């Protein structure tokens, strides 16, 4: 969501920033709704080396990981892509981090090239700059991860920020934009802009930030109690679709049929999201129940994994098939809450909350991924749910969309895809643009799917539709509410509807002067 100018502003005015130039273009905002990923050395390494199983050095979730094992943001086997930076001035390099549960920091580590020379010390700092521990690294010019253990472990806990750092007297490894987004692994979370530095031969508490650079410093954290993480167990594999998934563009124009999706005149005030009829999903019958165990975000690469009964802080990225996410409360400042590339991802009884204006979507399927979500409660991001081919959303509550000045809000999108179903949901866009449901656009690939028995409300147009082929679009038995705007959407209930090949029937007004009467496209 955020543009590159905003990212670059972190190091504004700093001379000789400690990070080598990027080897490729930085991410930029795309008005058309395409996937956004981080441009980091970790991602480059994953793409280039097929044997690496996890993105951004987030370890696979496994049930066999020992509770007392040392945790950090980066996987123990990670080999970063960049070489030593040409800057050879002495500098303290660090990473800000938080922990999701109590424990101890037993040391720090860093990744060094063979040309970086001897490193003097590693340190742990409080957020106010108090040095909590320090230790001297052994003299070693070899390439790889270098670790040091403190004489005494330091107790740390949730809700506080710490800094792990090391003094590099003659060079270091770095990658610009490596922390453009939060990175989380098990109990340790590095926020956006986590990389920090301070020049000087004696080092000191690092606070400067240059272009969200990653200096490949990590903490060695040991949880104090064996609090179980999400349960991961193999499940019987569901057969993948036998026919290939058709390629289709997920992009779309942001203009409305009237010339603009955003009204040119003063926008009406947006009241709090009105409650839908009790017969439709709401906060009381969606989301998790019971006790949830805290943990950080992760990348899942095990087919059939089950993540359950968890309170997750960060993004879940699914790169495996038949993964189940059940009874989870997820809070994210990343671009996505749950991003899946896997087939047959199931998400149920889960709440996803975006807490940053840069969050693009609560749930998104991409590059052949399919998702079936039910009884989910999604709020706080630009788009609630982005479906793809053969995906579904059922008995769910999408509301409270949020973003920045460049956002184009949609409760649910399925434009350009086929075989999707959006059934018995409450979908509210309390902004005066773009749509509660965006299911098609005549300028792009045709959509084929079913929008049935939903409470729909708000947006520039409540439903933004388009032509279909074959089975076409079926928009049936939905109720359109006027609680947000007198015409349901700011401009009206539906735009771009083409009757040929599509079905519109049984759709009625939920309230207002025409309550119970048909809604006509």
UniProtKB/TrEMBL annotation:
Skewed-composition ranges (Pro residues): 231-244, 265-274
Region (Disordered): 1-34, 227-298
Keyword Transmembrane helix: yes
Membrane-traversing stretches: 40-58
Entry keywords, A to Z: Membrane, Transmembrane, Transmembrane helix
DUF4082 domain boundaries: 79-217
Ribosomal protein among keywords: no
Pfam families with a match to the protein in the record: DUF4082
Biased composition (Low complexity): 245-264, 275-284
Annotated signal peptide: none
Protein name: DUF4082 domain-containing protein
Organism: Nocardioides albus
